[in-house]
Amino acid sequence: VAVIGAGAAGLCAGRHLIAEPNQFQFDIYEQQDDVGGTWRYSTHIGQDQYGLPVHSSMYKNLRTNFPKEVMAYPGFPFEESEGRSFLHHTEVLKYLQDYAKHYGLYEYIKFHKLIENIRPLKQEDGSVEWAVSFRDVVTKEKETYIYDAVMVCNGHYSVPYMPEIEGLNDFKARLIHSHDYREPQDFKDLKVVVLGAGASGIDIAIEVSEVAKEVRSFLLHHFDSMFQHTYA
């Protein structure tokens, strides 16, 4: 079995595959240098050190918007955190690293491997095998392995969506997606507009309001008219 990604889903898949050693052999492919997926904070914006799109949308001060009690894997609780339920992202990353170590998953993970192609290979008996082609992002070497099954665990939050808004492309000041937001100091003493009032939008608006001259937040989703809130 090939598992694509060593984030939360990929590690969970690996933990269950390793529990049946007589039934499964598997590899986990990860393009970064450690586990964690979207929970790995990077100061890079746009492209990482290997010229690949930055996968994570993590920003410096992010805390979970779900309590740790409902985020934990069954049978593997978070460490005691002095009564805190909403954790800093570094604590979640450590939890995932501890999970991988506890179940011995690191030896199955092929780091720095970028999946470039997965194609089915139909066999004479009607069964299907899968050719998984990948490239080492450091050495640039390419290889292809054959598997009986593939589990795609690469997440849903690595490609930012920019809405089509009239005049947006003509905006001359700084324009970023929350995927590229890292810390509030970048907006010190500026007037800032935040479009979107979901979890990230509200969190970023409040955080930036502590250093910006003015922050206005607009809720656009699912409404014919806009809702506006100004943070003093």
From TrEMBL:
Entry GO MF terms: flavin adenine dinucleotide binding; N,N-dimethylaniline monooxygenase activity; NADP binding
One Pfam assignment: FMO-like
The keyword Flavoprotein is assigned to this record: yes
Record keyword Repressor present: no
InterPro entries tied to this protein: FAD/NAD-bd_sf, Flavin_mOase-like, FMO-like
Record's keyword terms, sorted: FAD, Flavoprotein, Monooxygenase, Oxidoreductase
Similarity section: Belongs to the FMO family.
Protein name in the entry: Flavin-containing monooxygenase FMO GS-OX-like 9
Provenance organism: Araneus ventricosus (Orbweaver spider)
Designated gene of the protein: At5g07800
